[in-house]
Amino acid sequence: MGTPHCMIDASAIRHRNRVAVSATQDEEESVDKQDIIDARREARKGERIFYTSCPNNGCWDSACILKCHEKDGKLIAVEPDDTVNAGMCREDVEWESIWRGMVQMRPCSMGHAWKEELYGETRLTHPMKRIGEKGPGKGYFVEIGWEEALDTIAEKMIEIKEKYGEFGIFHTQYGSFSKNGFPLAKWWPASFGFWGDHSTSGHTAGENFHLGFDLTKSMVSGTSPALPGFEASDVFNSKLIIMWGMDPVVDWFGPTSYYMQLAHEYGVKTIVVDPRYTASCEVLADQWIPIRPGTDLAMLLAMAQVLFEEDLYDHEYVAEWVEPEGFKEWRAYCLGEGEDGVAKTPEWAEAICAVPAETIREFARLYGTTKPVHLQYFYSCAKRHLGEYSAAAAMLLQTMTGNIACPGGCQTGSALPTPGRIPTPFADFKQAPSDYTIPVLCNNNKLTETLACQKDYWEGRMSEDEFRHRIGAPTDDSPLPNIQMLIIENNYVNNHHDTNKRMEGFASTEFNWGFQWHKNQPSMEFCDIVLPAPVWQFEGMDQYMYGHQRFVSGPSGMRNYFVFSDAGCEYPGEVRSKEWVWTQIAKRLGVAEQYNPRMVDVAWEDWTAAQRAIYKEAYEEWAEDKSGVLKRMGIDPKPWDEFVENPVVRIPIDTPYYPYKTCLEAGMNPFQTESGKIEFVSSYVKNNDLTKTRWRGHFDPMPVWEPSYVEGDIATAAADGFYNPKAKEYPLSLVTPVSVYRQHSSNDNNPLLREDCYRHGVWISGVDAKARGIKDGDLVRVFSETGEMELAAYVTNRMMPGTAAVHHGAWFQGGGKKTERNPYGMDMRGAPNILLDDVHLPNILGTLLTAGLVEVEKVADGDVEGYGPEAERSGMRGAATAIASRKALGEKEAL
Amino acid sequence: MTQYGFHFDQNRCYACQACSIACKDWNSIDPGAEKWLTVYEWESGTFPNIRIHPLAYSCAHCEKPSCIPACPENAIYKEETYGAVLVDQDKCTGCRKCYDACPYGAPKFASDDPGEKMSKCTMCIDRLEEGLKPLCAASCPLRAFDFGPLDELIEKYTDIRWAEGMPSPEITEPAYLIWPQREKEPLVPFDAERAIELNRQRGDLGTMFETKEDLTEFESGTIGRSELRMKHESMAELMRATRNDMA
């Protein structure tokens, strides 16, 4: 894969063109050694250093610090953070410095691989127009100029808004938390928000109903000071850490996982509960307890039963913070004194979870007799059909043991939000004020359903009530969408459950456009015009997500620093700033003076410098420190030129943030339920018909194993349940964990990652593989009711029998052979969302689903001639298939 | 000469390969088999008694390197300031005798082509000369590495140069100290036999497997990466041994 950008250096190393000299052996060697050094120095000559951070959505909340080498406008190499403790490898600084967060923010493997991402052969570097229908295998692209692209986009925006109204347009970025990322909405109303979110969506119901905590209010609208996150060093306060479905070295990269590892070394006891023996089981934990996917609630109930029966809960905490009637009711349910008369003992749970009763009982005892305990019931365990109950139960356990809001404890759920510790500069582009608020039309995780149903509704084949239920309309009189233009600024098509259904929806609109990074990104196939997207951390000076500007700090578990992401490399090809693009569109829509008044007349050649000048102005105003706040923090701001040489401001943490610290210390009650206490039986659920609320489905007021509105229990009634009768046909219970090498789906093409250091395969246990005649490395077909893929098998005894895993974020790559399940062709790269369905009802809506039932069958030996390593090379094989398929249809752009 | 070396804490590594990628990025090495810093991950045991083992190994810059005498062209030498083992590529003919001699597979080749010149870890002498540390060691997210004069490292970490599955250190005396993986002490009882019994049943849906042996006996090649292999017949084999499945 020789790419021109790195050949310069590589050749310097390999062929140093040393002039032959006659000399003794020793002299020759020292000459050779000096040549090696000189070759590297020569290669480094003319490089400029700049710093940046590379958080992407899906970066698992880390804001690492990258020291970048740039030459001739290109990224050459990335070194890790050296702005503190420089020159230390093991970074064995004194305890005080670790505790106070004075440590490096080293990037992960992805942080060192960006060069291949920026200059990879698949990078999209030109605006393109689609010829033919949307969807893989149905059309191709031709290059167009910026003027044509922008004119067409603006015309279509005006046309669609006229025809279908404001909600005929949907912008796919940041629809969560009742917001939307459409940057012109304030002055050119269009698009709409979603209620709910993706990450902690399985925990939202528990937080809202039982704790009276609403993440949207605290993290987005700022109407609540309750922040349930914790800072990394608070784990040193814990006596026991329970990682339930949590794999922090993978899913929470950065200071938190590093500190958990240190805590483990210092002797904080750690247990992982997970169907897989994860990397965190190995490096962070004393013990692994394997549990069948989706049966967690049974084990949590059994733990509660032990705590009640043996009186191991925190009476004082319960007396102060818990609503007593509901507590009694749930206690009776767990002890078998409720309506069903079944005691939820460890013996009751063991056959469900496949965890020995003795283990559950002793685990409950350890939990009940240790304090404080950080029981982190992680996101994905609850992101299943009917999964919300398990998250709620975990919160109730943390409550009854007094661990929910104290140093060393945790809320278990939204573990992220903590207050920033340093005020950061704000670059004021002086946008015009507007009191327009974007309306909320449906739930965050029902866009696929919206696209699937809207035609039937608007053409009279579906009742309004039915439509509102299916999409999670917030009220009975909220406006209804008729999406005919999707503005795709991410890989949204690929990254949610039931991708086949989602792709059909994205193909059904009149006109889509968006920004994409790679020619084989599946979302590109659903754009009528696609613009080449910059990689913001390295190219230009655009802001990041949610209006987050280039002074980057957490949320990362450590918010005692920020780094200025300076202008780095040049835009490759015809790539341009997104802010420039939006300004040009705003001009055509007549709102540029409102959207970007300071930049509206700036020429493209001057764009980055003009953006940077506004950042400089922001920094200098901040550095003036008019309020004296920086001085009080001990920050002595440097002049701009000095600052950008080493653009990190960092202060020591005094006391780490623990969940709800700000509220508790101010004497405020973070738990805004009807009773003002944590409610084991939710009065909101009890007193309202949830089917008439935005939740649009049923939910029982306390966590129970057999919800009143389904046949049977959670493990049989859930669409993805381990004991669902469907498992006769699809016997493997699939989880789709996030990965070490992608931020959501970013970097999936990166050849330094995919196929160099990892293989994207399906995890299957030894016993299940043997029964199917599968060996490690074989090419297999993974299929469910909703979709199918071909990829390599990773056969491992790290899996529980009857389970499978395909990591999240791989790109769907069809375009090859059509199949019964995949309208756009067999997936060559393994996008796990095509295996998951879109079922929420009759349960409440709101959860992003991450689990399913699948079967795996062998397709070919991994080592047959001609296949060999090919089976492990699904990445570029898939990319080549996708691009070749478009080419065959007429794409003119040569790779 | 002061012999410099590495210390690797096997308990802190999860085989994420940040070190390996940082090395390739810094040294401008293309994706592929030329992994100067090679990361292995393998498993041992059967369900539910299972461990995974990581090893991040570059070149051990051995005190008694076996590659140097093996080279017919005298292309490999021990550099005199840090004790780094280096290769003079102008002399290298790609005969791979060094590869046969090195117990750790440290000499690397970009391809299987005969005549492909050997390349290897330079201990980042370019960085050492600037007062910096080798990039692999400085980039580990979990701080598994240390680097410095070998005698100082030995004093700090004790003189262990071996971990389970590796070749004996007596052959070459590698300047690569290791804290091997610790045993795990369970916090609560876990009866594996009982767990297997429970895993066999699936309620109304029948059984998952028949006997305990179904979980413990496998034909060779069924389980992926079930041992540490530091030497490889081909680039494809090396890639298989060094690609994990964490994505």
TrEMBL record, chain B:
Coiled-coil portions: none
Domain 4Fe-4S ferredoxin-type span(s) in chain numbering: 4-34, 48-81, 83-112
Matching CDD domains: DMSOR_beta_like
Keyword Ubl conjugation: no
InterPro entries listed in its UniProt record: 4Fe4S_Fe-S-bd (IPR017896), 4Fe4S_Fe_S_CS (IPR017900), ET_IronSulfur_Cluster-Binding (IPR050954)
Keywords tagged on the record: 4Fe-4S, Electron transport, Iron, Iron-sulfur, Metal-binding, Repeat, Transport
Superkingdom of the source species: Bacteria
Record-given protein name: Oxidoreductase
Organism: Raoultibacter timonensis
